[in-house]
Amino acid sequence: MKNRNQLKIGSLMSYAQMFLGIIISLIYTPIMLDLLGASEYGLYNTVSSAISMLSLLSLGLNSGYIRYYAKYKRDNDSESIWKLNGLFLIIFTIIGMIALVCGLFLASHLEIVFAEGLTVDEYRIARVLMILLTCNLAISFPMSVFSHIISANENFIFLKTVGVIKTILSPLVTLPILLMGFRSIAMVAATLVFSVVTELIYAYYVIVKLHHRFTFCNFEKGIFFSLISYTAFIAINLIVDRINWNVDKILLGRYKGTEAVAVYSVGYTLYQYYMMFSTSISSVFTPRIHKIVNDTEGNLPLRREKLTDLFIKVGRIQYILLGLIASGIFFFGKDFITKYWAGVIYGESYYVALLLVFPASISLIQNTGIEIQRAQSKHKFRALVYLGMAVVNIVLSVVLCQKYGPIGSAVGTAISLVMANGLIMNLYYHLRCNIDVIRFWYNIDRVSLGLIIPVLFGLLMTRYFVFSGIGVYLIGISLYSTVYCLSMWLIGLNRYEKSLIIDLFYKVMGKCFLVRSGEKQDDQNC
Question: Which range has the worst mean pLDDT, 195-199, 229-233, 251-255?
Answer without folding.
Answer: 229-233
